[in-house]
Amino acid sequence: MYKYSPVIGLEIHIQAKTKSKMFCSCATDYFGDKPNTHVCPVCLGLPGALPVPNKAAIEQCIRLGLALNCEINEFSKFDRKNYFYPDLPKAYQISQYDLPVAKNGYLVINTKQGESKIGIRRVHQEEDTGKSIHEGGTTFLDFNKSGMPLMEVVTEPDFQTLEEVTVFAKLLKQTVEYIGVSDAEMQKGQMRFELNISLRQEKDGTNLPPYRVEVKNIGSISALEKVMQFEIARQTQLIDAGQEFKNETRGLKDMSGETVAQRSKENEDDYRYFPEPDIPPFINSKELVARLGKALPELPAARLSRYLSWGLNSEQADTLVDQPLKGNWIDVLAKQVNNEAETIKSAAKLLIGDISYQLEQQNLELADSLISMDDILFLVNKQKEGSLTSTIVKQIIEKVFTTKKTAAQIVQDENLEVVQDRSQLEAWVDKAITENPQLVSSMAKNPNAYKAILGVVMRESKGQANAQQVEEMIKGKLGINL
């Protein structure tokens, strides 16, 4: 628990997935190419160059707004946001101010504290700047990124815990990936966070604190969490020292989360917004919005709720939402078994556990592996009827990956089904008791020591003994009543 209550808002820049830049025809697949090879007079900001809006980018922004439960402005326009940076040669950015593409939305998140509704103030369209590269005391400018289409999501200052922020950030990333508006690859700078954070003292009541600290260009969710921890500790120390705060912009020093002062924070008036004179206002027709909304897929929040309704635990459900190819696989299986919850739970457990382990070990995708849905249903059903133990199932899955045999063929060829013959089980139990007198004697102090004898039997049978029957035999022979 923190001494003062954090008040947090986010601004998230998301690179739209389009073939060309926001206001010119330069290709967007610049990553890894030589500097300044994806440029033209428009994205270089040369005098007289005229911007032409990218229709596909605007539609991507509408789709994101709809996925975030926003109102879509039927009448929208671009504005000039005036400020100077070396990598912004025309000294203004084409963005949106009072009439963004989308506004007044929300995203519902679930944390350990329960459900929270995070307000979305706006989702607007803008262009990206270039990139400054600092080497050996010299700064180089690369304009390949200049003019890339960006969607900016601005939240309300509704976050009160670090968990809420990280859960929201993860859900937003999943959402943009699901609807296909961005690949959101953070290592490529396709999704970046700006953090607005201040601390509310008791005397402030429910009012917003009288200051705001903004931290720019945070490139990962883990770094975002570290920055919040650092800023809460730093601001708490300054409040305790009686220091007055001013609005401030800070930068991320390194991946440790430490921040450094850059400048006093600008006010909106400082940007001198005015309507972009080279681009006329545009209409987002009701027909267009309805068509884009109808084409949206099932969103991550709805998918998570569906998995939880089948009885999957939160960790399993999160994994299937976060790895949609595996989630799609479970969805197909669910249709085959008419949404029978127990079968789905068992299949999901195998997929997330032993199957995912084999995929990782052999550097394979699920679609490229030899294991099939029929294999998994066979194993699930055999486990359900008690014919296969979890240990044997694990061995079978490994063999499916390393042979061209099906799970059923492996079980038949190697006679792997659980041994339920009473005389054979009794022989294993008698042997385990006779050869381990120290375990038997230890049960006088610890009755649960019989489980060690059970383990001996399971090893002797190579995991094929019916564990429940063996346990009952051991208890009966040793007179244990638990």
Note down, in words, how this protein is organized.
The protein is α+β, with helices and mostly antiparallel strands and 482 residues long. The chain has 3 domains: 5-293, no CATH class; 333-414, no CATH class; 422-478, Orthogonal Bundle (Arc Repressor Mutant, subunit A). It is built from 15 helices and 16 strands. It starts with a strand and ends with a helix. The model has no long low-confidence stretch (mean pLDDT 89).
Write the SSE topology.
Elements: E1 5-15, H1 55-67, E2 71-72, E3 75-76, E4 79-82, E5 92-95, E6 102-111, E7 114-127, E8 131-135, E9 138-142, E10 149-155, H2 162-179, E11 191-200, E12 213-218, H3 221-240, E13 248-252, E14 259-264, E15 274-275, E16 282-283, H4 286-294, H5 300-309, H6 314-322, H7 324-336, H8 341-361, H9 373-384, H10 390-402, H11 407-414, H12 422-435, H13 437-442, H14 450-460, H15 467-478
Parallel strand pairs: 12-13
Antiparallel strand pairs: 1-10, 1-11, 2-6, 3-16, 4-5, 4-15, 6-7, 7-10, 8-9, 11-12, 13-14
Helix pairs in contact: 2-3, 5-6, 6-7, 7-8, 8-9, 12-14, 12-15, 14-15
